[in-house]
Amino acid sequence: MDLSEKRERWSRMLAQAAHLAELDNTSDAVDRARACQAEVLAELELAADAEARPPLQQMLARVERRLAQAEQAHADWKRRVEERHDLHLAREQEVYDLPLPGSGID
Predict the structure, then answer these.
(1) Interatomic CA distance for residues 100 and 87, integer angstroms
(2) Alpha-carbon distances of 102 from 26, 40, 93, rounded to whole Å
(3) Helices (H), the chain
(4) Fewest CB within 10 A of the end CB: N or C in the chain?
(5) Are 55 and 3 in contact (CB under 8 A)?
(6) CA-to-CA dists, residue 28 to 6, 34, 38, 46, 100, angstroms
(7) Distance CA 104, CA 106 (A)
(8) Using CA atoms, how far apart are residues 81 and 61, in angstroms rounded to an integer?
(9) Is 73 buried (19+), middle (13-18) or exposed (0-12) by CB count in 10 A?
(10) Average pLDDT for residues 20-39, to the nearest whole number?
């Protein structure tokens, strides 16, 4: 696979990460962006040619921006889930704090 095919693959992976984040599937978005980052880093390590490094470094910067966005989206999602959980616990506590109804037998 030549570099242009790899760049196309990485661009597709980043688009998939963005789409997953839009669907609130943020953990998979982060995983996809991290996988892309690992591939770009591996290719950058293998690049012995000084001319090949700048495009790879640009791609790595793009991947890292997308990864940061995915991680932020995941953190926001986790915060929303925790807020819903806390709200649910508060509602449950309100129910538990209500007095028990009388048996009606006197």
Answers:
(1) 22
(2) 48, 68, 20
(3) 3-22, 26-46, 53-97
(4) C
(5) yes
(6) 21, 10, 15, 27, 45
(7) 6
(8) 30
(9) buried
(10) 95
Residue in the structure block whose two tokens are 């509602």: 91
Length of the chain: 106
Task: Provide the token pair at 66.
Answer: 């997308």
How do residues 45-100 score in pLDDT, each as one tens digit? 988 788 888 999 999 999 999 999 999 999 999 999 999 999 999 999 888 888 88
The CA-atom distances, in angstroms, between 29 and each of 7, 12, 70, 82, 103 are 18, 12, 6, 20, 54
Q: Please give the Cα distance from 96 to 90 (Å, whole number).
A: 10
- Assign 3 a pLDDT band (cuts: 50, 70, 90): confident
**Second-level CATH architecture of 3-95:** Up-down Bundle (1.20)
For residue 84 the two structure tokens come to 């819903």
